[in-house]
Amino acid sequence: MKQSNLDALGWDSWFEEQAGYCCDSTASVARVAAVDRDQVLLLNEIGPFRAKLSGKYLYESVSSAELPGVGDWVCVVKSEADQFGQVHGILKRKTHLRRKAVGETVKYQMIAANVDFVIIVQSCHYDFNLKRLERYLVMVREGGAMPYILLTKTDLVSSEELAAQLAEILAAGITAPVFTLSNVTREGIADLKGVLAPGKTYCFVGSSGVGKSTIINSLVGHDVHETKAVSSTGEGRHTTVRRELMILENGAMVIDNPGMREFAVLGAEGGIDESYSDIVGLASQCRFSDCLHTNEPGCAVRKAVAAGEIDASHYENFLKLRKESEFNQMSYVEKRKKDKDFGKFIKSAKKDLEDD
Ligand SMILES: Nc1nc2c(ncn2[C@@H]2O[C@H](COP(=O)(O)OP(=O)(O)O)[C@@H](O)[C@H]2O)c(=O)[nH]1
Ligand SMILES: [Mg+2]
Ligand SMILES: [Zn+2]
């Protein structure tokens, strides 16, 4: 297998060896740029193409961790006719980024695979939280990647406030390199850009709303995601719908992330998402402590909405984002099970097996 121009995508002799264990001679390798339900967007030396997971592989994978995630290298067989691929397996991961998932069936949720550096993003405006930063650092180190810390929205705080946050990081003994930037004044963007090396993969993580997509847009040079500006704080709001690996002009690869975990445990650990602090604040007055603010009796949030104290569209946005977050925390298999046609899918997968 000659795949030398895959180097630009992060391929090296270590993966070459893994491919030997996993891909047969009919298969080639490609890197996962995005996952959409049962399809993946792959990159190889020729360019992007789509592929499905083979029914057999899907059926035999018991946990979501065995299924391809963004950044994974996979063995794929490409059809001559339509250039569509069938994924037969994933190569062993050099590094992984995953978080402990809530719930019983999913132990870990994959964020990205084969990432060289994880850029932990916090906004110095309301979002900065040392404890959460430390948890992210542990997560990064456990997966074998190198951490960078990035404080955003420096335009919204005084230089004293920023200095105090930097001092806190130092005092905690954190040795990861720290970058600061403002997407508004663009101060600090060049410094970050300067460390992104060709052929290396960088994954951005952090709470929703801290500016990850904005930075990536400016690194890529054009808008890659839809941006929605709606926020009382004037900072706007934007939702990343899926995780995607993108290649910058200089050859560095970046992965954006929906900041979801924080959202799911909204209220459980301070300094989360300032945009919904009004709803989170009211939740403690709901009759039930686990109130979902949808149709529970004695819900203080819905009462406030009905009274016009909380904007109805703001509330709907909250529900929508929460739903998105729950969906993102489900394993691949669980998502399939949610699918209406999951039964049909299992039947056809079984049939594929019998046909083999
Ligand atoms: N004032 C200010 N606003 C920012 C900055 N970076 C991003 N924003 C705004 O913050 C909102 C959320 O940014 P986004 O990139 O979507 O955050 P993400 O959820 O982490 O991807 C957007 O409306 C941005 O315009 C910044 O450096 N300063
Ligand atoms: Mg985003
Ligand atoms: Zn409620």
- CATH architect. name of the largest domain: 3-Layer(aba) Sandwich
Q: Overall pLDDT, averaged?
A: 80
Helix content: 25-40%
Rg calculated over all Cα atoms: 22 Å
In short:
This protein has twelve helices and 13 strands. With 356 residues, the chain is of the alpha/beta class. Mean pLDDT is 80; it is low at 226-240 and 260-272.
Keywords:
OB fold (Dihydrolipoamide Acetyltransferase, E2P); Ribonucleotide Reductase Protein R1, domain 1; 356 residues; five-stranded mixed barrel; Rossmann fold; globular; 3 domains; six-stranded mixed β-sheet; alpha/beta; binds magnesium ion; 13 strands; 12 helices; binds guanosine-5'-diphosphate; 33% helix; binds zinc ion
Would you kindly provide a written description of the structure presented here, covering whatever features stand out?
- The protein contains twelve helices and 13 strands.
- With 356 residues, it is of the alpha/beta class.
- It has three domains: 4-90, Nucleic acid-binding proteins (OB fold (Dihydrolipoamide Acetyltransferase, E2P)); 96-259, 3-Layer(aba) Sandwich (Rossmann fold); 272-329, Probable gtpase engc, domain 3 (Ribonucleotide Reductase Protein R1, domain 1), CATH 1.10.40.50.
- The two termini are 26 Å apart.
- 36% of the residues are buried.
- The structure holds guanosine-5'-diphosphate, magnesium ion and zinc ion (ZN).
- Residues 212-213, 238, 240, 256 line the site of magnesium ion.
